[in-house]
Amino acid sequence: xxxxxxxxxxxxxxxxxxxxxxxxxxxxxxxxxxxxxxxxxxxxxxxxxxxxxxxxxxxxxxxxxxxxxxxxxxxxxxxxxxxxxxxxxxxxxxxxxxxxxxxxxxxxxxxxxxxxxxxxxxxxxxxxxxxxxxxxxxxxxxxxxxxxxxxxxxxxxxxxxxxxxxxxxxxxxxxxxxxxxxxxxxxxxxxxxxxxxxxxxxxxxxxxxxxxxxxxxxxxxxxxxxxxxxxxxxxxx
Length: 237
Prior knowledge:
By secondary structure, the protein is an alpha/beta fold. The protein is built from 8 helices and 11 strands.
């Protein structure tokens, strides 16, 4: 039986019949403000509390901003950052310091692999696969990068969430249309309008090896982080 990892979100663990399968690479697709950073940080801190080192590789925001945006949640534990059990790396800064060009497929994949290996991380978040792929000027390079990255992640044996940035209020999982094909799972974070209010929603689209619900859940961001509520319990049909 495949080992499952607690995600830090109780209802998500229930949806996934016990948690995220260990070693999976999962796409988390969502537009701006849908809660991607919060959920993925929750995932890393949940692992750190179980003794698993977590790594957040960012291309879109500096470390200080990520910390500032999550430090008020109850799942946040500064001691985990100080002890190196949760690490946040600005990949663009690392690339400049090492003289690496992120527009080269081999250099980009090598740098990601080195960052993961040096951190000895078991849980990894890459924010975002969209920003990384945008460095390449041809579809062929994008495909090569995504497939090479998928192969590296499989070899490294870490459980990885790849953040995919998508336009608001659309039903799609990626910009390039191929990211989801290297993934073992896809989770979609969207929003819809009801009586003039934008409501966040969450749905597990696929998760290999798991008999999971594909129902849509209302997603609320509370003091303890992401909370998922079935549509019927939220009074929204």
